[in-house]
Amino acid sequence: MKTDFQMSGESRWSDWAYKTIRYVFVLVIMLCISVAVNRVSAQEASEAEPVEDTNAPAETVSVQNISDDDAIRDRLTKIFDSAKEAGWLSDAEVELQSGIVTIRGQADTEEHRQWAENVARKTEDVVAVINELSIDSAVDLASTREVVTKSLDSLWTDFLVRSPLLVAALFVVLVTSLLSKLASWIIHRLLDNRGMRTSLKDLVNQLSSIAIWIVGLLIATVVAFPGMTPSKALTVLGLGSVAIGFAFKDIFENFFAGILILWGYPFDRGDFITCGDLTGEVKQITIRNTLIRKLDGELAVVPNATLFKNNVDVLTSQPQRRVRIICGVAYDEDVDQSRDVIKQAVQSCETVQGKRTVEVFAKEFADSSINFEVAWWAGSKPLDIRRSRDEVVAAIKRDLDAAGIEIPFPYRTLTFKNPEHVGFKTTESVVENNGPGHHRPTQTEESES
Questions:
Q1: How many independent structural domains does the chain possess?
Q2: Strand ranges for 98-180 from DSSP E
């Protein structure tokens, strides 16, 4: 068996692990926002730069004192041979006619292919470049490994450079958590003395906590990523608002429903409510859902939108609730006397509130009894209703027995159309067989009695 110290230690460990996971999750979100902002900035910068047409002619085409085609070919051939020794190009051939350069061969990457084209375009007296270099499709594991290694090294270097900033951002998140708890405590202390509804105090507390976390996360993001600004963050949120709206439609619906429930809905913490087949006590109302403890002890987590869009019966909106039962007496009993006995029995119960409002009315002629509708007021909680009903039923039964008033069982009357055919004798035949002074009840009479 675990001791209290061990259990408290496990609880503290679980709380610490939960908070650590939450902070790591916050940092991951901040990293995602930074990447998105960098992409947005790069896209804006690329849109701002003028697009250069690769097939556009030179700014000025010379007419006199132009270089000879052979000289240009020789110069480009020497440059591409040097690139061939470096492994950038292979089988590179240069053809030139009237200042138009055609490059054929293979390049190892698209970057080197574009480099060869740029070199030819920037050569003096070149009018246009036709790039027919193909990309070498052979798989070079060594170069691939080198590229992966460089990428990982760059990522690790960037992480080491940003690690002080990430630590500072984590410190800001911790301070934000402390400020949120402090603000919650201050708000409770201020609002408890003003007689405000519990649900309204919860609403103010939760909205204040959300506002503090938004500001704290924004500051932590700016600290972790110096290039981040609030306007860029809002731009990222604006770009993803449509997707976020569709993906989290139910969450937003429950969020706004929770605000409306906390703001002015007629039930609060501690109330007993009924919604559909669910009946229980409201334990907590949050921004997203409501926790309801059912009568059998189970805890139900109900989305706020369900409570907001469906009919809800608040059982404890008033301190008292009316209870009704049906009580029947035999037809041979006096109706007025029975009514008085039942009313006095109900008024003698301790759980009955409002003794003067006890109502007993003859309701109907039932199959075997005259039924009375008995109504009284009791506590509004389900347990109060059950206790009161138990006490009232016992008191009515006890007083009716003491007064000699019968609470009848259901009666059954069996009537046969031709009793002789089923082996029974009529009254006349019995009198004839037994004499005029001797009468014997038949089966029909016994069943009717």
A1: 4
A2: 100-107, 128-135
Parent domain of 126: 79-135
In a domain, 422, yes or no: no
**217 and 26 Cβ atoms separated by less than 8 Å:** yes
Extract the tokens encoding 335: 């109706």
Give the pLDDT band of residue 231 (cuts 50, 70, 90). low
Burial of 158 (0-12, 13-18, 19+ CB in 10 A): exposed
Owner of token pair 């035999």 = 330
Q: What is the Cα–Cα distance from 170 to 164, expressed in whole angstroms? A: 10
Question: Model's pTM, two decimal places?
Answer: 0.47
Q: Strand (E) positions, 276-319?
A: 278-285, 289-294, 299-303, 313-314
Distance CA 115, CA 119 (A): 6
What is the distance between the alpha carbons of residues 442 and 427, in angstroms, rounded to a whole number? Answer: 7
How many Cα atoms within 13 Å fall on the side-chain side of residue 309?
Answer: 9
Assigned domain for 213 exists = yes
Residues 303 and 329 in one domain: no
pLDDT in tens, 46-75: 554 444 555 555 555 555 556 677 888 888
Q: What is the pLDDT of residues 185-204, one digit of tens each?
A: 887 777 776 666 666 677 67
SS3 content of the chain, % helix, strand, coil (to 5): 55, 15, 30
